[in-house]
Design a protein that fits this description.
heterotrimer; A mainly alpha (about 325); B alpha/beta (about 240); C mainly alpha (about 300); A: mainly alpha; ABC transporter involved in vitamin B12 uptake, BtuC; 2 domains; two-stranded antiparallel ribbon; 4 strands; B: about 240 residues; Rossmann fold; 10 helices
Amino acid sequence: MLIAFAVFGSLPFWITEIGLYHYLGVEILIWCIYELGFNLLLGYAGLPSFGHGAYFGIGAYAFGLTQFNLWPNLWVCLAAAILAATLFGAVVACFISHRRGIYFALMTIAFGQMFFFIASKWTSVTKGEDGLLNIARLPVELGFAAYPIQRNAAFYWFVFACFVVVAVLLWRIVNSPFGKVIQAIKQNELRMSFLGYRVELYKGAAFVLSCAFSGFAGALFAMAQGGAFVQVMNLQWSGVIVLMTLIGGGLVSFWGPVLGTILYFVARDLLGAYTATWLLWFGLMFMLVVMFKPEGLAGLWRDLRRRGATRTNAAKAGAQPSALLALLRAR
Amino acid sequence: MLEARGLHMRFGDLVVLEDITLGFPEGRLSGIMGPNGAGKTTCFNVLTGRYKPVRGSITLRGEDITGLAPHAIARKGVSRSFQLMNLFNEFSAEENVLVALPDMRRRGFDMLSRRGSDATVRGRARQALDRVGLADKADMPARDLSYGERRALEIAVALATEPSVLFLDEPTSGLGTDGTERLAELIGRLKGQLTMVMIEHDMAFLFGLADRIAVIHWGQVIAQGTPEELRRNPWVENSNLGKLR
Amino acid sequence: MDSLLFLLPHLLNGLALGLLFALIALGFMLIIGVMEVINLAHGSLFALGAYAALALMTPDGGLPPAMVALFQALPLAWRYAAALVLAPLAVAIVGMGLELCLRRTYGRDPLYGLLLTFGAALVIEELIRLAWGPTERFIPMPQGITGGVMLGELIYSKYRMFAALFAIAMIALLWLFLERTPYGAIIKAGAHDSEMVGALGVNLPRLRLFVFGFGSLLAAIAGIVMVPIWGIRPHVGVDAVVPAFVIIVLGGVGSFWGAVIAGLLVGMVVGLTGAFATDWSLISMYMLLILVVTFRARGLLGKKSILEA
């Protein structure tokens, strides 16, 4: 969906024009990165992880710790964050790769809670509930020049660049043979094993990859907030990304999670102004979506386009709607 | 080619297979028949690695494959179709066959190249579809195909792995006369090219194609032989497995 | 030797905890048996039970003043007994409502049912947070069951004894209901093969509704009794569903006594951990989950479990 990509490409200009504060854009993009990575696991591999906040948090802490104790270089710290999240993800993957469904889900919850617990208790390293503070937005050093990104506006462009890279990377991944394989595994794991695939390896890879992206997003978030906090690792926050991803239509569309993220933040800012119960409404909306339209917003969009297309096409030549449907359903 | 010796299989206290010894010669079509619940599909499941037999051994080209995981056995050139169809419903017919191609499997972890949209791979997928007469339905999602087409796709997927041994579990179930004829034709064409093992209830179909048939009842092999030999077998004659002309 | 004796009160605690866990797990199991769904919201219903009792028992629990005045007039013990009956019934209704929502996901990819119950758990927790606030609350307990009692040289918690006995009674009642009543037989049959039961003329949707409500009821009762042991916080729901799951995996889906024994085991582990490091008692449950799932791959009498869907 290169069209969608172009639309989002022009987003930053629009945001600046309207005068919505840049930080919102930053938050949205960071969570988009988090979710696009997460959707690799949920939407494409069909594996529900309710403990992903842990890897987001690990990335944030890793970034901060590397900055304070190792080398306050942007690229090094980001790399450390990704590496840390990937490593922890790999360890967990060893326990859960050969599972699916409820076993998988509960194990992710268990590990998520454990990491949350460790992070809260290991105060010497993580400073516990207070959080790891004073994480700086390190300048972007490109060898020939260093660009400071302290200010929100500048930081936004950096985050946007990251978003572009991540989106392109993930788009390539899901359209690669690997992407095909994990989609097949989602639909019929048994058959895939009979076709000679070592499904645990693929599921594990999908999991670890999504953890890596989560860690990256976490590091960016640490820079954005100026600190790494343990709250993002709790069950509620891990659950919220599931909600966002699904409502947006992650199960059927690459861009679904982005829609879901935008919806979430809009809801938070708009509804949050009126009522403190907006999370409740979001949760209820999630339930309704699962019940009535699990394909989410992206699914709705697709339905609208399909209805428009079939009407014109049918009028034109009484063509086969099935081929068109197949085309529209393609990711 | 493929040999099973003394297979015993048990689920809890229920003995499902008892001392099964079968040989499937290379290039031939071997049939397995028997009443429902006799253990035929369990036999398949054991032979293809889904279950590990309690006792006994399975050898493929002389190599012991007992107890190997399904994916390992599949990689040695064993493929199967399922009685209750096991397709990728969201995928198109072409995509269904695509993931079965050994080429795709070898490139499974390739995360950066374009989706299997390069011409050679897709061409081979279309060829596989053509074999079963589904070339014109390549882009249809599997769940939108008719029952007969899904059956054909099921076999196309199993064939796409370029197996040396193909297990077919009741391939005609639910097919009408037309479909059965086409299937008989397809299998006839495949004879000699690979080793096939087929479970079937349709006696005419089975007897017309198989080189040798084994009869399984109550988890045991009670008779084995060529179709002619079995026709003369009193047990088969008198059983309600179907009267043959 | 002394140190071992010191463990005895903690063993009692573990026992009480284990029996209550078993109760939660049994309700959980009944629901799994008759439906194909793993109810992640089971823990939230547990929590809701506690909060509903809170509403009934304390003047600022959230009920309209007129009702509160009426209720407060009764002596504490009566109020407690009434709460034990009324609150679970209210939760049962919520549970049935949840089942109605779940109907839309039957027959589809089990992932949707899982996501829906997860969403429900989140929603219920939020509702609780909104209605009763995020801080810890307390329910006054009748005199007769609070405090300690001296046996030998050690102090045993009277409440734990009460909780244990109460749980035993509930489990016994449940067993009698399942084994000796016709409706219980239907539930058991339905748990074994729900399609068949439908074919035999039982109104399957109604059965499912009832079982869901009943399972929720059990969870709520456990929730109320658990209050002095675990406290009332909105988040207590999640902490409750994990042991239920561990117990099912250990004891086997469909095995009544398996659930009870496994419940005792889990309770012991949690209780004893609590003796040495209170912070770690909750997390020990999660660790237990990881261990159990890792090493008891199937563990379910050879029968392929619906949990594997």
